Amino acid sequence: MFSAQNVAIIGVGLIGGSIGLALEERRLAGEIVGVGRRQASLDKALARGAIGRATTDIAAGVAGADLVIVATPVAEIVEIVCRALALAPAGALVTDAGSTKAAICDGVAAQSSDSRRFVGSHPLAGDHRTGAEHARANLFADKTVVVTPGASTAERTTSQVEEFWQSLGAHVARMAPNEHDQAVAATSHLPHLVAAALAASTPAKWLALTATGWADTTRVAGGDPTLWTQIFAQNTPDLLAALDRLVATLEQTRESLVAADWTQTEEHLARAKRIRDALGN
Q: CB 83: neighbour CB atoms within 10 A?
């Protein structure tokens, strides 16, 4: 079971705040320090009980840390991880919670001389809403967290970070950073792109006629556009490959509709149903 005297969370929004709440509820850390740019955001995390102490100074925030979790937007993660590695105690471990992994892991390895103490993480849990006010202690319970060691990552770093996520109730999968990005391009990034396209292509005058199908399909389109643009920018080749597969499938379905080939149309729908049903929920 993971336990630490001091955990520093840099970026105490939905994910960072939920980590803090889970640590507090499970009594896994003696002190939880929140680090952020805006005092107003830190005050929300303090009010929720997600952190016990707050600071806008990274050096002060990580000074006594056993573990540092960087839960900022992906475009900032490499720089902040490298700063944390340089400023935290020599034995401190560092991980992140970004939705992309290859760019982050490669960037840290190239820019830090101590990247053996860093391993990438991606909790497959979240919400289209952001901010500590939406954080919850059970966000990671029974969810999957992918841990992505790089060539320079020490085995001790990987195993202890895996233990950390398991202590929050998560199931851990270990993958190479590139393999992770290929997978989530299809299972996370493309669904967001499709949800956004569906929402954007719906005439406003018909919104009163939308029901649960439209709402369920477009829910993630309510996410922060700036954050998702950063994610797309860091995983463009894999996202384009996933998008090309979708376009090919849509073209086949369109051809069957144009030809009034209802047998082929039903086969497309049946194949989709088999794949969706295989998920089991």
A: 18
